[in-house]
């Protein structure tokens, strides 16, 4: 199955000039959704993660069923102020300003192998920040995985871990 056929594009969302890759149509198609999780499972399993970390919010949709398929745990990386309890945060630069992601302080034990999961790799800034955050709490990040990679934005080059992607768009 070509899962690319189940991803629609929406021009000028969330702002003019942006082409948004919408996974809603893929999630609504059971066979395409199953093929996506299976593809991610094949990509991530060789890295032997103990736990998967999903980046808010579409990364949650992918990491949770993937964790079940792999028999691992699942932890959330969220925007600042969204997680209960004591958290550890990492602030990183955006094109215009900064953003902050957090993880619960006790979510990862030192030496835990954490595969990072998100829907899309674009510029790489959020994913690089997530790797830094996971390492700061003692995680070892053997890989990151996404459904979509926008290769023309060269986000892979910002990452110090291998990235597995199912679909690439070159423009």
Describe the secondary structure blueprint for this structure.
Elements: E1 8-11, E2 19-22, H1 24-27, H2 30-44, E3 51-55, H3 58-70, E4 73-79, E5 87-94, E6 97-104, E7 113-121, H4 125-136, E8 140-150, E9 163-169
Parallel strand pairs: 3-4, 3-7, 7-8, 8-9
Antiparallel strand pairs: 1-2, 4-6, 5-6
Helix pairs in contact: 2-3
β-strand number: 9
Distance, first to last CA: 22 Å
Average the pLDDT over all residues and give the rounded result: 96
Poorly predicted residue ranges: none
Structural class: alpha/beta
Tell me the strand percentage band. Answer: 35-45%
**What coarse outline follows from CA principal-axis ratios?**
globular
User: According to CATH, what is the class?
Assistant: Alpha Beta
Number of domains: 1
Strand order of the largest sheet: 5-6-4-3-7-8-9
Number of helices: 4
